[in-house]
Amino acid sequence: MNKYVIFYIIGWILNIEAAFMLLPSICAIIYKEKSVFAFLITIVICLFIGIPLSLRKPKNRVFFAKEGFLIVALAWIVISIMGALPFYISGQIPSYVDALFEIISGFTTTGSSILTDIEAMDYCMLFWRSFAHWIGGMGVLVFLLAIFPMTDGESIHIMRAESPGPSVEKIVPKMRTTAILLYKIYLGMTLLQIVLLLLGGMPLFDALTITFGTAGTGGFAIKNTSIIPYTRYQQAVVTIFMFLFGVNFNIYYLILLRKFKESLKNEELKWYITIVTSAIILISLNIGGIKGFFKSIHHAAFQVSSIITTTGYATVDFNYWPTFSKVILVILMFIGACAGSTGGGIKVSRIVILLKSVRHEISYLTQKRSVKILRINGKKISNETARSVNLYFVAYMFIFTVSLLIISLDNHDFTTSFTAVASTLNNIGPGLEAIGPMGNFSNFSNLSKFVMMFDMLAGRLEIFPVLLPISLGISKIKSHKLTLPR
Question: Coiled-coil region(s) at which residues (predicted)?
């Protein structure tokens, strides 16, 4: 294993995080908040560790899949440990465990919060937790690839480990150029949403933080009542952009190339639109008697877009919706957005592959002579992709079950415990009952919070990069046991 290149990249990650912290520091200066010192101290710590690591250029910069997965896992753990420091040092979140939970929820674009009074936080802290969504949405390592020269053979391992979905495709031949294009699209859509919200009369600070949460599909709000206080127009803008950020970014590249027919033929996009439309219609009909027809469509569209893209904003407390509508929202939690988007969940493409695999197996059992090939977008699904999807699903269900068992020790009601795991593992944010859109995660034990922190990281990094360090640790322990003298 090339340890030197791992330390080298981690060093650069810390330097980048220090640079990102300059923005909330400026925010603190603008609003004359004393919390600025917490960011300045953290910046110094990041640079104190990061600069020496990044100055030692490794002679051998070649690494493979194992190092790529390990780099991604360690990078997200390190930026979370450092990112929690401003909350803790400033005293805005007195418990470091809670501060770590909050920032992991931010970076993984989950949006689950331990805060009981969000509006009591300083502006710079609210900015940092929302900005963490924007950083984590596209991925800090994808940002590193965009600014840092690296061969395609190396960068593809990082891209595959950090990017959501069953497979990662290059938009253009060079991976670094792909990363730059992705960030250009990401930044362009972010700026467009900010402008539209400002045109709707939203204050600049609100427009920035809400857009960060929308772009990263994170959902940290700056109001205790989420998006409820804002106008119908502003909510509609957020609805549209939540949906758009849940689409595979490759589709936007095709649109920029004016390949409209090719983009519209994308099978995952068709499924995504169908699922969203169906859910909106069903929920609108179900809650129509409560809200009125047009209000029902508005709130159903917002919540469906929010949940399937794993954003987590809310315009209503859907805890009070009929059971049928809540069940639909829970199902959407698991489905998630498209591969190659900033959304979480299992992903629409994986669901499609699993359903096609079931249909293929039934066809094989009933018509053994016929040989059918699994295809998506007219292309054959490789055995490797089908295998990885099946293994992902098995690992997903195992982590979900174990997490639910541990969290149930807190003796919350079943719905709260079940949706707590669903919301953190799928990077949603709110669940139902005690952790609904107007609730929070503060009443869980530290053990449960650590389990949910693991789930948030596992969900954002597609499970396997997080399991690799654990697997390597177990292997080392076993090897040490074997060499112990009798």
Answer: none
Structure tokens belonging to residue 53: 């690591």
Are the C-beta atoms of residues 338 and 266 closer than 8 Å to each other? no
Annotated binding residue at 427?
A: yes
Alpha helices per DSSP H over 163-174: none
Q: How far apart are CA 331 and CA 308, in angstroms?
A: 9
Three-point CA angle 157, 333, 180, nearest 5°: 35
Mapped onto helix, strand or coil, the DSSP state of residue 375 is: strand
Confidence band of 165 (pLDDT split at 50, 70, 90):
low
Q: What is the pTM of this model?
A: 0.90
218 annotated ligand-binding residue: yes
Contact 137, 218 (CB under 8 A): yes
Residues 6+ apart with CB under 8 A from 226: 219, 313, 314, 315, 437, 438
Q: Please provide the distance, in angstroms rounded to a whole number, between the alpha carbons at the two ends of the chain.
A: 30
Distance, in Å, from the CA atom of 437 to the CA atom of 421, rounded to the nearest integer, reads: 15
HSE (CB half, 13 Å, CA atoms) of 41?
12
**Gap between the Cα atoms of 4 and 208, Å rounded:** 38
Are 454 and 406 in contact by the 8 Å Cβ rule? The answer is no
Least confident piece of the model among 168-172, 290-294, 359-363, 452-456: 168-172
Alpha helix (H) ranges present in 148-231? 152-162, 175-199, 204-215
Query: Is 311 known to sit in a ligand binding site?
Result: yes
What is the C-alpha radius of gyration for the chain, rounded to an integer number of angstroms?
Answer: 22
The reply to whether 177 sits in an annotated binding site is no
Q: What is the DSSP letter of 320?
A: G
Does the annotation place 415 within a ligand binding site? no
Q: Is the pLDDT of residue 275 over 70?
A: yes
- Token pair for residue 56? 């030692």
- 464 Cβ contact list (under 8 Å, min separation 6): 69, 161, 392, 395
Cα–Cα distance for residue pair 237/233, rounded to 1 Å: 6
Q: Would you state the structure tokens that stand for residue 393, as one six-digit string? A: 């699903």
Short-list 368, 181, 195, CA closest to 256: 181
Phi-psi region of 377 (alpha: psi -120 to 50; beta: other; left: phi over 0): left
Q: Which residue has the tokens 């979370």?
A: 80
Helix (H) / strand (E) containing 128:
helix 123-138
Max CA pair span of the chain = 77
Residue 81 confidence class, pLDDT cut points 50, 70, 90: very high
| Residue 109 in marked binding region | yes
Three-state DSSP class for residue 16: helix
